C-alpha cells in the first residue's frame, strides 16, 4: 500500500518506519524545511546547534529504545548516573540529589527517596508513601480515574503535606508538561511515578549525542527511503480532498515558491500533525462527527527553550538539573552532557522556561534578561561578584503550542489512532497511548497507527503480506 503521512515529527517518521517494515510505501509530507517537529534543531552561523527543546530519554521508554536498536544507533544515547538532581533555592549554588542504587525496583526508588534528607522530612516521606498506596495497589485503573483531579487536589485528598508539592512536585510538573501542580492532571504525575518506581531503570536518563534532527530523525529517514519510502521537506498539507462518501481522495500539497499545488493520492492517509493545526484543517463534513469534535478538548501549551553560551565553565555537572526556579524548569550544561556540543572551556546552558504563558509574547531580550536574573541564583559564584561570566551569545526558541496541555479531564478527549473515516488515521503524542505526550508517546503512537493501518488493510483484503512484521511491532508496543 501507498500511505501518505502529513508531518515528519517523531510520530510521523515512526509510523512511516514501521509501515516500511511491513512492506508498505509511505510518503511523508513535512511542512517545514527541517525534520523532527518538536525535536527539530538548527545550526547557527557559527555551526552551533540550537533546539526546540532540551530532550531527555528515559529508561522507561521501551519503544524509543527499541527504535534506537532497530536503527543501530544505540551508541548515540549518552546515559547518565542514575540520579535526579535538584537545585536548592534556599542555599543558592547547591544541589540535592536522589541517587538510585543498583538494586531492583521499587527498592532502588524507595532507597533514593529515603536517602534524600535535604528536601523532605521523614514524616513527609511517610505521608507521601501512604498517599501513593492506592496507586500502587490498584495500578493503571486508579491512575486513569485520578484524571478528574489536579495534582494539588490529589495531594490534598491524600493528606500529603503541601511542602512535598513545593519541594519536589512543582519541578516535576513543569518538567512533565510545562505547567504547575495546580493545573496538571494527577494522572500525569502518577503515570510517571508508576514507571519510575516499577522499572529498575525507569528514571535513568540519557542525552542524545547531538542534534535530534541529524542524530535521530535522519537515520529514520534513511531507513524509510532505503526501503522505497519518501520524505519530503517544504511540503505542507494544504487540504484534505474528499470523496463523496467522506473518505480521503487525496492530500493536496501546497506548492511553494510559485510551484503548483500537487495532489498526493494513496491507499491510506495519516495526519501526524499536532492537534492544533489538525483542528484548523478538518473538513466541515468531518467536524460534524463526535470523534473529531472531541479534539476541541485538546490544546497545545506554550514553552520556551533558551540557549546561552558563556565565556567560561559554570559547572562540570554532566546531568539534567531541576532548577526549582519560578521562571525556569529543567536545564543542563550541554557542553558536559552532549558529545557534539562538548567544550571543556566554555558552558552552553540549555534551559526550559515554563510555565511560559506570560513570556511567550515577550522579546528575546526580555527573556534573556529574566533568565540571567535566575542564573545569579543558580550559579552565585559566577555572577554578581567580580568574576562575572560573560554571555557570548544566545538563541531563544518559542513554541506557542507544544504538547497538549494535560489539565484534569483531558484523557477523555485523546483520540484513538483509527478514525470513523475508513482510509484516514491519526498519529501523534496526543493520541491515546500509555506514555503521555513525550518522545516515547510519539514513537509508540506511530507504531500503533502502522498496526491499525495494517489491520484495516487486512480487513479490506488489500494485502496478505503484512502480518508478521507488524505483529512484532505491536507486541513490543504493548509489552
Ligand atoms: C521544550 C520541549 C521539551 C521537551 N522535552 C521532552 C523530553 O525531555 N522528553 C520527552 O520524551 N519529550 C519531550 N518533549 C516532547 C516531545 O518533543 C514531543 O512529545 C514529541 O516530539 C512530539 O512528536 P509528534 O510527532 O507527536 O509531534 P510534532 O513533533 O509536533 O510533529 C508534528 C509535525 O507535523 C508538521 N506539520 C504541521 N502542520 C503540517 C502541515 N500542514 N503539513 C505537513 N506537516 C505539518 C510539523 O511541522 C511537525 O514536524 C519536549 C517538547 C518540548 C517542546
From TrEMBL:
Its main location: membrane. Pathway: Carotenoid biosynthesis; lycopene biosynthesis. Its cofactor is FAD; NAD(+); NADP(+). One of its GO terms (cellular component) is plasma membrane. One of its GO terms (molecular function) is phytoene dehydrogenase activity. Belongs to the carotenoid/retinoid oxidoreductase family. This is Phytoene dehydrogenase. It comes from Aliterella atlantica CENA595.
Amino acid at each position: 500500500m501507498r500511505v501518505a503521512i502529513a508531518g515528519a515529527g517523531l510520530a510521523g517518521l515512526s509510523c512511516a518506519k514501521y509501515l516500511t517494515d511491513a512492506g508498505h510505501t509511505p510518503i511523508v509530507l513535512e511542512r517545514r524545511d527541517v525534520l523532527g517537529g518538536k525535536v527539530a534543531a538548527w545550526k547557527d552561523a557559527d555551526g552551533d546547534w540550537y533546539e526546540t527543546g532540551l530532550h531527555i530519554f528515559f529508561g522507561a521508554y521501551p519503544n524509543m529504545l527499541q527504535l534506537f536498536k532497530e536503527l543501530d544507533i544505540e551508541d548515540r544515547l549518552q546515559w547518565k548516573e542514575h540520579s535526579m538532581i535538584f537545585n536548592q533555592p534556599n542555599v543558592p549554588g547547591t544541589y540535592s540529589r536522589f541517587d538510585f542504587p543498583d538494586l531492583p525496583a521499587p527498592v532502588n526508588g524507595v532507597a533514593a527517596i529515603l536517602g534524600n534528607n535535604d528536601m523532605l522530612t521523614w514524616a513527609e516521606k511517610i505521608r507521601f508513601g501512604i498517599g501513593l498506596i492506592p496507586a500502587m495497589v490498584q495500578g493503571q485503573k486508579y491512575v486513569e480515574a485520578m484524571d478528574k483531579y489536579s495534582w494539588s487536589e490529589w495531594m490534598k485528598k491524600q493528606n500529603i503535606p503541601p511542602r512535598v508539592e513545593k519541594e519536589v512536585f512543582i519541578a516535576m510538573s513543569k518538567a512533565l508538561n510545562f505547567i504547575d501542580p495546580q493545573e496538571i492532571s494527577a494522572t500525569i504525575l502518577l503515570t510517571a511515578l508508576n514507571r519510575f518506581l516499577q522499572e529498575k531503570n525507569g528514571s535513568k536518563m540519557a542525552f542524545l549525542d547531538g542534534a535530534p534532527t541529524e542524530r535521530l530523525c535522519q537515520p529514520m529517514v534513511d531507513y524509510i527511503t532505503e526501503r522505497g519510502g519518501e520524505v519530503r521537506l517544504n511540503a505542507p498539507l494544504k487540504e484534505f480532498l474528499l470523496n463523496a462518501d467522506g473518505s480521503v481522495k487525496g492530500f493536496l500539497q501546497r506548492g511553494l515558491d510559485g510551484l503548483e499545488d500537487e495532489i498526493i493520492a494513496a491507499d491510506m492517509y495519516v495526519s501526524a500533525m499536532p492537534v492544533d493545526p489538525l483542528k484548523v484543517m478538518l473538513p466541515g463534513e468531518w467536524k460534524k462527527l463526535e470523534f473529531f469534535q472531541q479534539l476541541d478538548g485538546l490544546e497545545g501549551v506554550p514553552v520556551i527553550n533558551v540557549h546561552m553560551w558563556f565565556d567560561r565553565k559554570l559547572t562540570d555537572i554532566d546531568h539534567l538539573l531541576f532548577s526549582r526556579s519560578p521562571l525556569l524548569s529543567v536545564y543542563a550544561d550541554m557542553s558536559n552532557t552532549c558529545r557534539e556540543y562538548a567544550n571543556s572551556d566554555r558552558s552552553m546552558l540549555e534551559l526550559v522556561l515554563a510555565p511560559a504563558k506570560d513570556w511567550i509574547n515577550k522579546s528575546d531580550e526580555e527573556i534573556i534578561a529574566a533568565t540571567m536574573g535566575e542564573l545569579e541564583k543558580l550559579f552565585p559564584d559566577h555572577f554578581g561578584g567580580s568574576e562575572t561570566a560573560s554571555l557570548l551569545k544566545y538563541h531563544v526558541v518559542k513554541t506557542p503550542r507544544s504538547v497538549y496541555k494535560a489539565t484534569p479531564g483531558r484523557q477523555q478527549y485523546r483520540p484513538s489512532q483509527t478514525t470513523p473515516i475508513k482510509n484516514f488515521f491519526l498519529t501523534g503524542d496526543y493520541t491515546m497511548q500509555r506514555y503521555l505526550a513525550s518522545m516515547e508517546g510519539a514513537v509508540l503512537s506511530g507504531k500503533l497507527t502502522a498496526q491499525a493501518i495494517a489491520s484495516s488493510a487486512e480487513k479490506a483484503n488489500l494485502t496478505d503480506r503484512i502480518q508478521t512484521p507488524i505483529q512484532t511491532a505491536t507486541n513490543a508496543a504493548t509489552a
